[in-house]
Structure formats: structure tokens, C-alpha cells
Batch of 2 targets.
Target 1
Amino acid sequence: MQKTKTIKTLAAALVAFQGEVTNPVNTRMNEEFNSGFAPLEEIINHLRPLLNKHGLLLFHNVGGDGEKVKITAVLMHQTGESIETDPLEIGHDITPASIASAITTGRRITLLSLLGLQSEDNVNKDIQKENPKPATKTTSKKINKQQNGEIYKLRTELKLTHDDEKAVLKSIGYNFSQDILQSDFEKAKNAIRQYAKKKM
């Protein structure tokens, strides 16, 4: 974590802020992970009045290298004192929607972490479903040895390294080729071809 030379005034303001703030409420459900979460916009709307009251400003720095986004959260006091989180790196697909999702998730995580908060369920409030898990993910079988061999053969023919293969698999949600589902087999091969084409 980075900080200005002194954070005495900021620390006092943060203590006062935490004495009044409540945890954001989970209003959305991510069925893929079977967990609730508070959307970023709701968290910000929940926190902004108290942040302003105590002279605090929170913002994010966003960067990336094409495969990962890097996000830091900065909490600044009106005196100029500030603290900044270490960069949080999140992998993503190459689509704009995936990049935007990674940024939103990273901002939510670093914001709550920096302020010492955690979103929590409210049993009296309906939770909307988001990102429902596709049925194929629960019913589709993994690729067989022959198909796994095709992945290896394709990677070899395209002169890609093992690290290249790992990067491609990670971009489509897998760590190892043997874990690829039948429903994603063609997707994996196409991703490898596209990756190789970009390296040429």
C-alpha cells in the first residue's frame, strides 16, 4: 500500500467514517458462484454522502497490459493526504464486455477492501439474479484424451509454447486443457488459432 508522508488527518476522518457507515446490502445474485453481491453503483451511492461528510474522496486508477486489468483504489482527504491500495490484477477475455466486467469487479473489490467493508445479505430484500450459469456447464462432460491430444497437436503446429496455451485457456476460463468441457472444445481451438494469428 502506498501513502503520503503523513495520514494523521485522513486516519481520523476514516475512523469517524467507519463509526457511521454500514455495510452495503447484496441485491444481486451471481448464480455461477451461488453468491450475492452489491453492484458497484449501489455501493458508491451508499457511501458517497458519508465520504463527503468527512472530507474524503475515493477514486480508482485503471490500467492493463491487454491480458489483465490493473486497478488501484485511492482514498484522499481534503488536506491532500492519501492512501492507495496495491494493484489488483484481473484476467479477462479480449471482448470489451469482459474487460468492462473485470474493471467493475476490480473497482468493487478494492473499494470495499480499502474502506474495511463487506457487502452482506439482507433476508428481507429480493436479490436479483445476474450471470445465470449456463446449463451446459453443469451437464457437459470434459473432453476426452483424443480431443486433448488435438489441442496439443494444434498448439504444436502453430508453434505456440506451453505458456501460450495456458494464457489462451485462462482467457476462456480454464487452467488445464483436460478440464475443457465438450461444449467449449471448438471454442478453445478457435481461441488458440486467434492467439497464434496475433503473435504472427
Note: Confidence is low (pLDDT under 50) at residues 123-127, 132-139.
Target 2
Amino acid sequence: MRTSDNGVPPGYNVQLTTDAQHKLIVDVSVSKESTNSHELLPALDRMKERLGQYPKEVLADGDYTTRESINGAVDREVDFYGSWAETINHRSSRGNHPDYAPRAFKYDTGKDEMICPEGKRLLHKTTEEEKGLKVGIYVAQKEDCRSCPKRDLCTPENAQR
């Protein structure tokens, strides 16, 4: 596994999938990959194979939070909670097409909702503080995104893939 300083010592990347409610480890995976970004969807699929169903929700840290993981969780009808590794200053680059960048979403002050360029409403979920700024987090209905013909323009695959 290559390290951040371009070294290549022997090493493995271990992934544990847990059931927080019952405090159980439900899956273990070991790879030589230096990043976790491709590990979430295979873990969800192994959970379905072993347990007969996908979990209702998944919580993951920033390295797992990619467009691929988010879209894959939506396709599997799993609520995904994750953190973006990028800062507020980089958020404007999220869309694949400028018509679907965050600035293209309109804010409804009366209802505290965002409206996507396709007219779908995103509900206010929470407010977080990031570097002294309050950031509202808005979420769309799964079905709205899943059935949207413009989905690939709005939520593209990670540009590194």
C-alpha cells in the first residue's frame, strides 16, 4: 500500500462494518488500497448478502463520501450520512455542469427550503458550523433524485474515476 509520502511499506487497509444499535461487527474487509473511497458500496452489498437486506441508513466519514457512494446508497434505498472532505470554498465545484452548481439552487425564505434547477424542493435537515460560518444542510427526497433525467449533470461520478 502506497503511503502519503510515496513510500511502499507493507500495509493493509481494514474496513469494519458495524451495527451501532446492537454493537456488533457485521462485516470485515481487508485490502491493500490506500484509500477507503471504493469500499462503502461493496460493504453494503455484502451486508445484504449476509443479512438478507440493506441497512436503513449508513454513517461514514469523509473518505467514503463520494458521488459514487451517495448515488449507490440512493439506488439501494439506504439513507447515507457522510461528511465532505472539502471546505466551503470548494463547494461550488461540486456539480458537473454549471447549471447544477450550488449557486443554481434557489432559496425559499418562507419555507426554509432549497429548490433545485428542476423545481424539486430540498428540505432543511440541519445547520452546521464550519470555520465560523453557519451552513444549512438541505436534502432532497430519494425518489426525486433517483428519477431525475438530469441526475448525471447534478450529481456526477467523482472526477478522479
Note: Strands lie at 13-19, 24-31, 57-60, 79-82, 106-108, 113-115, 121-130, 133-139.
